[in-house]
């Protein structure tokens, strides 16, 4: 409570102590930091406050590099064939290749959902298309233990890591732990993923006043604000709510209702961020659209009625958002300004 | 005398704290030593007659699991005996039974109060105040509470399950580490509060990779009580139980309470009795709700030992 008071009180009693304190803080401030890679987490100024519990698991160089190594290592899969990076590819903003509409894991088994891009996860309150996971730490367990993805069980993975010639000492360096355990594995992966910040797109540079957007891009931005931003809201292009954007009259995948067991949530999915959307095809939870043109055609002509269709996509008998071809093209031009080449090419995330 | 010790304790704290952080000189060391000795001297004088606020004791919570008037005894999945019967007359056995107890508090008639230390972290040693009570592990059924201020206590309160505050801390070690046997759901990430597995001839379940023939699995989970989760089922329960008589806790005593959990009250306490021919795979919060709502009534304090 009154900690600062206690400190100054005792320091004035023992002047030598005070001097020592002053000296050390002086050197720290004046010291010139060597030019180094910034591993620490730093939220971009325009972004909201991060949600991730960095107090438990701050990003360190050792933790980040360990997380990276694990992300690229098929040791996490049952048959040593699949790594996280098999489905989450940096040049695609860590989404899956277009060939894999729905993800393909061990033994060639197919899942039912499209792997989303991974970026700006520290700001995300809930993960997966249905929001079932509420903390980034727990997200990788689904991939590791899913029979459609990596097919392992966590006990086996931990055993393999403890028996590995290098991992135990890498975990020791990163976390001073004697043993590899699940929480430290999840901490390392979370450190790697939390550092995936994408905030250097042409749109960001435009906001910062360091670059200009073309006329169609500006027009697309205005149209986007008008028609799309009610759901794809704010600097991260999502309000993280669960909505039905009119894909089916009866969704096969219950979406949010899988978690809430509430009929009113059937066919609702978490509004995805649209950052880097230009490189994350195919689109929607089940990868049904191959191109952004198809997505815009959907919003304009393809929205179908259902009991849970979002109110903003129905005005009386009129379903969807009517757009002319040139409006669609302008919106698509704007969406491409969200592609952050620095992020897609950042050597920090590349396999060592 | 007491207040003097307290004052010295405070001084100790003041002097100690900053000097851990910076280099100590001889003067500091001597002064700390001086206060330490003084402090020790006064505490030593008071040892003989413990008064509330200075004496501490232990208390054991011992969990006994029952099915009606039968004690639980687990069997292997291939067992062909079905010793228990539910209200529908369906026989069954049990291969697994357990639950999480956390955030334990004790209270007494004169304002006595004790809260078990709670902490989480990746390291198993940081995880305190969370207990996975498993029928298969007798040690886990005996929860030893420590450093309880001496006094009279007649009530225990605990959380059955792992609540939102804990889940939202992220990956946690010890009894919450899935590779160490923690009951963690991945798809709706969070911990199973209460679970049973067994077999009943009434269950139509066919054998597969995860289940024996006639398998019954009832996993009660669901903890979401967070903003934007209005439709979620939260099955974590806070349960308060009164002791039949008050117990004295002090350093010279080792009292305990025997808590009983009657599984029949979990299965059959709700409006409809459980029917294993239709209810044999409960793996989601909403399906577990009817059972979760019975949990408070299934626990009772059978007796206390002074």
From TrEMBL, chain A:
Localization in the cell: Periplasm
Binding site for heme c 2: 228, 231-232
Alphabetized UniProt keyword annotations: Heme, Iron, Metal-binding, Oxidoreductase, Periplasm, Peroxidase, Signal
Residue span(s) of domain Cytochrome c: 215-339
One example GO MF annotation: electron transfer activity
Positions annotated to bind heme c 1: 84, 87-88
Pfam family, one: CCP_MauG
InterPro entries documented for this protein: Cyt_c-like_dom (IPR009056), Cyt_c-like_dom_sf (IPR036909), Cytochrome_c_Peroxidase/MauG (IPR051395), Di-haem_cyt_c_peroxidsae (IPR004852), MauG/Cytc_peroxidase (IPR026259)
PTM statement from Swiss-Prot or TrEMBL: Binds 2 heme groups per subunit.
Keyword Lipid biosynthesis: no
Entry GO CC: periplasmic space
Free-text cofactor note: Binds 2 heme groups.
Needed cofactors: heme
UniProt name for this protein: Cytochrome-c peroxidase
